[in-house]
Design brief:
alpha/beta; Rossmann fold; five-stranded antiparallel beta sheet; 7 helices; binds zinc ion
Length: 301
C-alpha cells in the first residue's frame, strides 16, 4: 500500500469518527421527557362514569386521555425532544390506548411499580410533564379531587405540608434534579402548580364547578393548547428548577378508616400518631413513595 492511499484511508477513518461522535453528542443534547398521566384532570372527564373499566363512558375517556398525551408528545417533538416516556398512572394504569399512542414514545403500563405514578424517572431526564392531574383531597370546587387513593387516603402531609399528587410526584422528580415543565388539569391544579413550581407552562383543561361538574372547551381545542404549551416548555427547558423537599422526610398519612391506620401501625417503623393517622420517617422521598406504593398495592389487589 502506498503512503498516499494510507493517508486517504486515515482521513476517512478520522472523518467517520468525527461524524459518529458529533451525532451522538447531538442526540445527547435532545431533551429527554417524562410524561406522567392521570385521568381525573383530563378535559371532558367529569364523573366516575369515564374513569374505570365497565363504566358507560370509560372507552370515550380513554380516547380523550390518549389524545391529550399525543398532543403533549407532538409538542415535545416539534420542540426537538429526544426520548419521551409516558407513564400511564391512573387506576389500573392501563387506560391509555397503546395502539393509538404516538409511535415515538415509550409507554409504562400497569401497577404495582416501585415509584407508582413516577416509576422510571431518573437523572437522565431533562423535564417532567403532568397530564390529567387534579387537585388534592378536600379542595373545594375541584372536580374529582383526591390524593393518590380516593377511597382510602384522606390526607398526605410531607414535612408538615399537606400535598397533592402533583407536589408529591414533583418532589420525586426533584430528588433526581428533574424539573416539572408543564402541568395540565383543572384551574385548581394549575393554580397550585404555578405557586409551587414557578413560571412553568400550564393548560387549564376544565373549569371545575363542583366535585362532579366542570365546564369544558371542545377536546380538540384543549389538545391544541397542550401541544403548544408542551412545545414552549421544551423550548424553555433550561429555565426550570427542580422541586426539592429537603430530607429527612416525615410523612403523615391519614386514612379515611381507622382500621387502616391500626393495620399499618403494627409495622415496627410505623408510628400511629392519631386514630386514623400514621407517621413514617425516611432519609429520602423515594423510600416514602415506595411505602405508599406498598400500602396501595397490598390493599388494591
Ligand atoms: Zn390521581
Amino acid at each position: 500500500m502506498n503512503k498516499k492511499l494510507i493517508r486517504v484511508i486515515l482521513i476517512f477513518v478520522l472523518l467517520g469518527f468525527c461524524l459518529v461522535f458529533n451525532l451522538s453528542a447531538k442526540e445527547k443534547t435532545k431533551p429527554k421527557i417524562y410524561i406522567s398521566v392521570d385521568m381525573e384532570g383530563i378535559g371532558d372527564i367529569v364523573t366516575s362514569a369515564q374513569l374505570g373499566p365497565g363504566k358507560f363512558e370509560y372507552e370515550r375517556g380513554r380516547k380523550f386521555m390518549t389524545a391529550e398525551v399525543n398532543a403533549a408528545i407532538e409538542g415535545c417533538l416539534e420542540a426537538g425532544a429526544g426520548e419521551i416516556v409516558v407513564a400511564d398512572s391512573h387506576g389500573n394504569a392501563q387506560s391509555l390506548i397503546p395502539e393509538e399512542l404516538n409511535k415515538s414514545a415509550f409507554l409504562i403500563r400497569g401497577f404495582p411499580r416501585g415509584l407508582l405514578q413516577m416509576e422510571g424517572i431518573d437523572s437522565s431526564y431533562d423535564g417532567v410533564i403532568f397530564i390529567g392531574y387534579h387537585a388534592k383531597e378536600g379542595t373545594p370546587n375541584a372536580n374529582l379531587s383526591h390524593t393518590i387513593w380516593g377511597s382510602k387516603f384522606s390526607e398526605l402531609k410531607i414535612n408538615g405540608k399537606v400535598v397533592s399528587e402533583a407536589i408529591f410526584n414533583a418532589s420525586v422528580a426533584g430528588h433526581f434534579g428533574v424539573p416539572i415543565i408543564m402541568v395540565a388539569g383543572d384551574q385548581n391544579v394549575v393554580k397550585e402548580a404555578l405557586a409551587e413550581f414557578g413560571n412553568i407552562e400550564t393548560v387549564i383543561t376544565k373549569e371545575s364547578l363542583g366535585y362532579y361538574s366542570a365546564k369544558f372547551r371542545h377536546p380538540e381545542l384543549i389538545c391544541q393548547e397542550i401541544k403548544e404549551k408542551c412545545k414552549k416548555a421544551v423550548q424553555r427547558i433550561k429555565e426550570f428548577k427542580p422541586y426539592v423537599i429537603k430530607p429527612p422526610i416525615r410523612m403523615e398519612l391519614t386514612f379515611k378508616h381507622t382500621y387502616d391506620a391500626e393495620a399499618f401501625s403494627y409495622l415496627p417503623w410505623v408510628k400511629r400518631i392519631g386514630g386514623k393517622t400514621i407517621l413514617v420517617e425516611a432519609d429520602n422521598i423515594l423510600d416514602i413513595n415506595r411505602f405508599i406504593t406498598a400500602v396501595f398495592s397490598i390493599n388494591n389487589k
